[in-house]
Amino acid sequence: MTGRTSEDGERRLGKRHGPHAVPVLFARPVRAKRPVFASGIPIDTALRDIGRSGLAHFIGNMQAVSAETPEAVHQMRVALRRLRSILAAFKPNIATAQYRLANNQLKLLSGTLETPRNWDVLAEEILLPVCNAVPGDENLRRLVAMVESERQAAYRKLGEDIGTSACRATVLSLGHWFETHAWRESGSAEQAAWFARPVGEVARILVARSHRKAKQRSRNFGTLSPPERHELRIALKRLRYTIEFLASQFDVGAADFYLKRLSLLLNDLGYANDVRTARIVLRELADSTDDGAIRRAVTLVLDWHKHNRASRETGSYKHMRRFRQAKIFW
């Protein structure tokens, strides 16, 4: 990005400078692995194993977050979103109190990651393309420096938050929830019987349930407001993660083909949401300063993305059509 120093570049690769530097070797982000289940195991066991892998994915990125590695923050958010998605798929079969307990704890952890991730997206997805399109612009350079300062402050706060006993207690509580199969508590006999069913038998029900919700939210796509498109994006993400968790129960090639098409639509909606969030943050930055250079840079960035988003809208309609007409593989 224009105006970024070599020190900034090293920081974003996972280094901290000074006596407490963290080597890059120990700050590598951890990505999720797709689980594989035998079709005959109980869904009860599968959900426990999904919880284990999701929390391991989250915990595995803590070191990299401490070293201020943006991809690690993204991966921790992915881990939590994946767990919330699978819980949403199971929601009709889990006692309300138990669902709320686990979901609220996952939301609590997600909240600690939101601010630094927003600054990362602003820097990488919003500012960087404009800097590449308009190289050497002094106004942009000043805006980049301002955003980088805010991002570093957000990472310092995150490092403090994830090191607290409250954060550790929340992670341990979630681990206990999955390990003890807490979704059985306060549930009916019918719910208990449902969790005893084999994963191969239930997988299609779960995917179909997520697909139905996403498709309902995609109706009249052209008339959806930005908040409604955001809700659609959440439903589509839940569908994607549910398929990924249960892909071993289907024809993997067909599932992957479907997921690739789904990803194109999610990319469109994700970009639109990033621009919407950036507009709010950048206007707040412009209002907080009398620096004319910052104000001019904000105008340039927002105008550039307004034009770029409009040019991508046709592609979004095409990807939406393909999603709604896609052959069901489950």
Helix content: over 70%
How many beta-strand runs? 0
Helix-strand sequence: HHHHHHHHHHHH
Beta-strand content estimate: under 5%
Give the overall average pLDDT: 90
Q: So what's the CATH class?
A: Mainly Alpha
Tell me about the biggest sheet? none
Overall, the morphology is globular
Q: Helix count?
A: 12
Structural class per helix/strand content?
Answer: mainly alpha
| Rg for CA atoms | 22 Å
In terms of per-residue confidence, which ranges show pLDDT below 50 for 5 or more consecutive residues?
1-25
CATH architecture: Alpha solenoid
State the end-to-end distance.
44 Å
| CATH topology group | CHAD domain
Overall structural domain count:
1
CATH superfamily: CHAD domain
Oligomeric form = single chain
Compact overview of the structure:
The chain has 330 residues and is mostly helical.
Key words describing this protein structure:
single chain; 330 residues; mainly alpha; CHAD domain; 12 helices; disordered N terminus
